[in-house]
Amino acid sequence: MNSSIETILPQHVAVIMDGNGRWAEQRGFKRSEGHIQGVKTLRALVKAAAQKGIKYMSVYAFSTENWVRPSEEVNHLMDLFAQSLAIYTEELDREGVRLLAIGDLDRLPDASRKELNRSIERTSSNSRLTLIVALSYSSHYEINKAFCMGLEKYYGGDKKDLPCDPYDNPIEPFLNTVGIPNPDLLIRTGGEMRLSNFLLYQMAYTELYFTDTLWPDFDDEKLEEALKEYSQRERRFGTVKTIEG
After folding, report:
1. Is 196 left (phi over 0), alpha (psi -120 to 50) or beta?
2. Which member of 64, 149, 186, 195 has the lowest number of beta carbons within 10 Å of its beta carbon?
3. How far apart are the first and last CA of the chain?
4. Coil, helix or strand for 62?
5. Is 20 a catalytic residue?
6. What is the DSSP letter of 138?
């Protein structure tokens, strides 16, 4: 691997896995075939990321808005999710991958939630790479829930004055991602150039990388391209560039 990538490797990579349906339609397949291939791509990329030394990977698997898709597609996605966990959890555990999930998980079907909890428990002691799967997730839901939890804690019912300093980030302890570093790099496949309600609070200073490649075609070589571009960017977090000499 290029040494510049090794020295500036992102600690946390977030991924919006877009393009499964279009990939299938371009080949005359059902959309469900694209989702199946998308799972295989994710499995390969998690393994590649762990081998490269990336410590966290967050993937946008299913948004709160996705619940309004046709019931047949939603049911297939939930079944595929449960089946994939049953198939791959043992491999993830052997490779030192810890699985976490964020979102409104109570909306998941019982079978999917049961498999998810089993996989989270099975991999809980691993530390090589943490895979955070966003399910029934949206940033609006997360931030609004955190705000409500913060009000309940800080106001105690009837206080009139703001009980905390906004610059102390009072809602952070209530976010889904508490204890997880913010993403350094976001990769979005499929040609769209938007965040789609994913980790909006956490990605204030995340480097964004957009590619036309559809998710099922995003392989290790494509990941290397994203990491190479990331290694060439200068992250200043709102400050100015320091002029040396």
Report:
1. left
2. 149
3. 31
4. strand
5. no
6. -
Compute the mean pLDDT over every residue in the chain, rounded to the nearest whole number: 90
The answer to whether residue 184 is catalytic is no
- State pLDDT tens for residues 147-164: 888 777 776 655 555 556
Helix (H) or strand (E) holding 239: none
What is the Cα Rg of the chain in Å?
19
Please give the structure tokens belonging to residue 178: 């508490």
Q: Which of 66, 79, 104, 182 is catalytic?
A: 66
Q: Which residues contact 13 (CB under 8 A, 6 or more apart)?
A: 49, 54, 56, 57, 58, 183, 184, 185, 186, 187
In Å, what is the CA distance from 83 to each residue of 39, 80, 86, 131, 206?
10, 5, 5, 17, 32
Q: Per DSSP, which regions of the chain are E strands?
A: 12-16, 56-63, 97-102, 129-137, 185-188, 207-210
Average pLDDT over residues 124-138: 97
Q: Which residues contact 44 (CB under 8 A, 6 or more apart)?
A: 219, 220
Q: Among residues 18, 20, 126, 184, which one is catalytic?
A: 18
Q: Check if the beta carbon of residue 100 is closer than 8 Å to that of residue 131.
A: yes
The tokens for 39 are 């799972």
